Amino acid sequence: MKRIFEVNPWKVITHTFNKEDKRLQESMTSTGNEYMGMRGMFEEKYSGDTHKGIYLGGVWFPDKTRVGWWKNGYPEYFGKVINAVDFVSVDVKLDGESVDLAKDEFSDFELALDMKSGILTRSYVVKRGEKKVKLNFERFVSVDMKELYADRITVENLSSASVEVEIESAIDADVFNEDSNYDEKFWNVLSKKKDQTTGRLVAETIENNFGTPQFTTEMLMENVSDLDAKEPVETELKVANVFSGTLESGKKTVFEKRVVVLTSRDYETLEDLDAAGEKLSAKQAESSFDELKAAQANGWAKRWEKADVVVEGNDESQQGIRFNLFQLFSTYYGNDARLNIGPKGFTGEKYGGATYWDTEGFAVPLYLALADQSVTRNLLEYRHEQLPGAYHNAKQQGLDGALFPMVTFNGIECHNEWEITFEEIHRNGTIAYAIYNYTRYTGDTEYVTHDGFDVLVGIARFWADRVHFSKRKGMYMIHGVTGPNEYENNVNNNWYTNMLAKWCLNYANEIADKVDADKTAELGLTSEERAKWHEIADNMYLPEDKELGIFVQHDTFLDKDLTPVKDLPQDQLPLNQHWSWDHILRSPYIKQADVLQGIYYFVERFTQEQKERNFDFYEPLTVHESSLSPSIHAILAADLHKEDKAFEMYSRTARLDLDNYNNDTNDGLHITSMTGSWLAIVQGFAGMRVIDDELQFAPFLPKEWTGYKFRINFRGRLLSISVSQEGTQIDLLKGDDLTINLNGKDLKLTAK
After folding, report:
1. How far apart are CA 611 and CA 458, in angstroms?
2. Residues 6+ apart with CB under 8 A from 396
3. I want to staple 632 with a disulfide (CB 3.0 to 4.6 A). Which of 171, 285, 322, 593 is the partner?
4. Catalytic residue numbers?
5. Crossing angle of the two packed helices 527-538 and 451-466, in degrees rounded to 10
6. pLDDT of residue 342
7. CA–CA gap between residue 679 and residue 675 (Å, rounded)
8. Is 550 exposed, middle or buried (0-12, 13-18, 19+ CB in 10 A)?
9. pLDDT in tens, 19-58
């Protein structure tokens, strides 16, 4: 655990700058608007260790995948986000020398991300001999005009003598990816244009050998300053505008940089790109910087009005949930159905920036409650659109049906670790579960009986082929898998995987009874095939230990040395930074909830005794080195009235990045895991469930808080839930009358 920012309900703020924490600071102050985003790197030159990263939604590249020896069915490439052309950099020179906080003497440092408005500010005083100059930076990616990046730099001379100021503002294609396997650069410059105050650069991703699209991006900058515009600069990969002048004692100068960013994802030709760029540049020029700031603040205010969670009596908890919601909505807000949610969002390159099962498992429940119904439907349609790729992935392994990828941009599996790509087949179950979850929450059956049914049938066919029949036990089994707990690979009969396969087959059959004959015929689904699904599901092997009263993680799990985590030397944690992979795989330690993940999905179907026995057995063996893990434990602990444990796990998931719990936030935030803090409050502390079409709550108040409040959408209605020491108040703010269940009793709500 390492905390480098102050606790503040609405800000991520610090007044210190430590070079060794630079990357951590950059991750924590990332900003985005779904269309694009960036780490909180400095605009000005910085010669020390830094990770400059700017990323554009849906723009990626297939990096070469090498396998050490022959494996049939191995993915051809590893898809990854690529660092965009750098349109942020600004070189600020004082008396001819670049400002560089890796070298300069400075004071009065402040770095602050205002989560209420989505604006990042930074200021400090540079000392050069007897001269002192204050620099102030304000920047944001606009939620009002998604293509716009805006930055304002104020330079103030605090010295008694004058200072020569020069500012060079650039668009630079000379960038690289930190995690590139071969140190490749990914951009070819197609054209450049410049005058004294503006610049334009068009670049295209390099060719690839895998038939995936090349992307073209266009950046148009406009610079505004009261300094004198000088001769612009142009190199092979860069255009820049230069401004300079003398700043007298006590005076300020203001410099503004505005950049419009467009990609070929939205425009078919270069002519279309150019025309749109000119139009958008003209539009943004109509507004002052303060007007653009006001539009940004207003946009975020509308988001917070719907989604804010208010925590009373604990600023650490309050900051945690707001930080997570801010970064989630910076990554994905449902405006582009072609996009999904990468585990790092726009904050880093780890995991390739691709789509994982995290979306369906952890993000869908949040967006169901906080966004329009169409947003979640778009997330489901994202998978339906990529169904052909899922059939391709299964065929690669010689299997029927559809295997949705663990990691993807286009539906084709594009990860470079075998145990992830073709052993973690449990993601198929979660993609089906998301359809079920959507249907259960919204009451909308149109999707599940049409496009959703296409997906369910593909998944069911995969499971039906992936199982094998054990003559010895007279049951169906699934061997050679990895469950959500990635600290065990190639195991047999992972309970979670087998349970989900059984459920998927049954659910596909359940929905088959509701679709029309034309749909069944379209998919070639016969009564014989459905009967086989029933037979497999009825005879699926689910490992269980009756004596312990638990579901067994996999066939040989109980043969391990089951020493609890608390008895390990604490200097060995996190395990993934101290133990060899071999040591981890042989150990009993669980990276993230596995059996408990399955219980969470279907919590109402298990008895309290089943839940308690499994929780008490597995939680002491869990190291939570997956960022997805604490939220599941928080929810189940709350369900079991283990309130202290629930709060402990909430604090871990809410402040995972803010306090760098897993010592890995320097390379980017855990975006999809950030749903966990909301889930822990709403499904955990407030006990929200939808059971048999009824919305239910069973709230408790953590003793560390004096109250909490949140809002949710539910079937065309907006509800406000407030929990305090006096009790629970639930109000219907908009929509038709609704009867809910509160603490086991029906409560009729009417909008006031």
Report:
1. 31
2. 73, 413
3. 593
4. 486
5. 60
6. 86
7. 6
8. buried
9. 999 999 999 999 999 999 999 999 999 999 999 999 999 9
CB atoms within 10 A of CB 348: 29
Q: How far apart are CA 28 and CA 669, in angstroms?
A: 7
If DSSP codes are grouped into helix, strand and coil, which group holds residue 314? coil
* Domains of the chain, first to last: 33-287 (2.70.98.40)
pLDDT at 209 over 90: no
Report residue 216 as tokens: 């073209």
Amino acid 380 reads L
Helix (H) or strand (E) holding 442: helix 427-442
Instruction: Give the model's pLDDT for residue 104.
Output: 97
Task: Round to whole Å and give the CA distance between 198 and 242.
Answer: 10
The three-state secondary structure class of 281 is: helix
Distance CA 651, CA 669 (A): 16
Which residue type sits at 197?
Answer: T
Distance CA 362, CA 666 (A): 23
CA distances to 647, 655, 701, 725 from 705, in Å: 10, 16, 7, 9
Maximal C-alpha separation, the chain:
91
CA distance 710 to 717: 14
Judge whether 539 and 471 are in contact, CB under 8 Å: no
Is 562 in a helix, a strand, or coil?
Answer: coil
Residue, of 109 and 78, whose pLDDT is higher:
109
d(C-alpha 312, C-alpha 708), whole Å: 6
Helical (H) or strand (E) element with 653: helix 643-654
3-state secondary structure of 138: strand
CA 652 to CA 659: how far, in whole Å? 9
Between strands 694-697 and 707-714, the pairing is unpaired
Q: What whole-number distance in Å separates Cα of residue 339 and Cα of residue 375?
A: 11
Strand order in the sheet with 707-714: 310-312, 707-714, 717-724, 727-734
Token output for 419: 């145990």
Confidence of residue 599 (pLDDT cuts 50, 70, 90): very high
CA torsion 496-500-502-504 (nearest 10°) is 180
Which tokens belong to 555? 């066939």
